[in-house]
Amino acid sequence: MNQLKKIVTFILLFVASTLFAAEHKTIAFAQDTMANDFRKAQVYEVRDAVAKYPNLSFISSDANGKTALLIKQIDEFVKSKVDLIIVGTNDADAVVPVVAKAYKQNIPVIILDRGVSGDMYTTFINSDNIKIGEIGAKYIAERLGGKGVVLLFEGLQKADVTQLRTKGFMDEIAKNQNIQVIKRTGNYLRKDAIVEMEKLIREGVHIDAIFSESDSMLSGVRSAMKRYKMEPSSIITVGCDYTSEAKEAILSGEQSGSVLFPLGGNKSVEVALDIFNNKSVEKHIFIPVELVTKSNAQAVSPIF
């Protein structure tokens, strides 16, 4: 009888392990660059969320900002037959064919943060970027009393995130006839923002306020101002993302505010689990945003 129990136990364990192996899933994250703090933090948030589940594995790639390399890396994930792909792109159009290839091969695709053209993907997770621009514009217009010169620091020009935030900002700020807007591109990178801000300072361009489409670029702005012995607190500055660095700057008075923009990594894994469990998911999932200033900075957790 004991021998029979051992045999039955062995069979049950074998069946259980076989089922577990059959359910094991691999999530791949194709990220356009890890040089950007926000994009890197997205990858890490997905990695850490996946680590909580023993039947999930995580792999990722870094395209170093090169679209051709990103396309190749996504294609490699497709060829490897991963179970789900998360895509962070730098170009809304260029990645469409390879994303469609994955989708047509029944590999679920989550587009995170920056959108792509068409609808050949499983779901798109992001925050309302038009609203982000509107929030920044409204706050700055109120602080300026409806008049002044505002610098709009834009991100990557081919990213829909940039285009939507700019649209939201420009449409809202246009309600104020006495506010002039000048634009510069910082590509969501601190170093690029430093270069552009230093040019403006050397040219003697007067600025009353800045809306930066990322806190990383606004950090670069502060670095440039300090190099030229200018106080960041002397102008109104609003960023986007709400990083720990931004929180410190807000509390110290060097930054006026930041629009909280969640990473979306945890939400991506949550949605991935729903997909694996054959649950229906919405085609477009919005994550709420909010303005953070000195009045509520202590109560709101930074994204990283």
Q: Summarize this, please?
A:
The chain is of the alpha/beta class and 304 residues long.
Helix and strand arrangement:
Blueprint: H1 2-23, E1 25-31, H2 37-50, E2 56-62, H3 67-79, E3 84-88, H4 96-104, E4 109-112, E5 123-126, H5 129-144, E6 147-154, H6 160-173, E7 178-185, H7 190-203, E8 209-212, H8 215-227, E9 236-241, H9 244-252, E10 257-260, H10 265-276, E11 284-286, E12 290-293
Parallel strand pairs: 1-2, 1-3, 3-4, 4-5, 5-11, 6-7, 6-8, 8-9, 9-10
Antiparallel strand pairs: 10-12
Helix pairs in contact: 2-10, 3-4, 5-6, 7-8
What does the model show?
By secondary structure, this protein is α/β, with parallel strands linked by helices. It has 2 domains: 2-125 and 263-287, Response regulator (Rossmann fold), CATH 3.40.50; 129-260, Response regulator (Rossmann fold, 3-Layer(aba) Sandwich). Helix content is 45%, strand content 21%. It contains 10 helices and 12 strands. It has helices at 2-23, 37-50, 67-79, 96-104, 129-144, 160-173, 190-203, 215-227, 244-252, 265-276, and strands spanning 25-31, 56-62, 84-88, 109-112, 123-126, 147-154, 178-185, 209-212, 236-241, 257-260, 284-286, 290-293. Strands 2-1-3-4-5-11 form a 6-stranded parallel beta sheet, sandwiched between helices. A 6-stranded mixed beta sheet has the order 7-6-8-9-10-12, sandwiched between helices. Helix 7 crosses helix 8. The chain is elongated, with a radius of gyration of 23 Å. The protein starts with a helix and ends in an 11-residue tail after the last strand. Mean pLDDT is 93; it is low at 4-22.
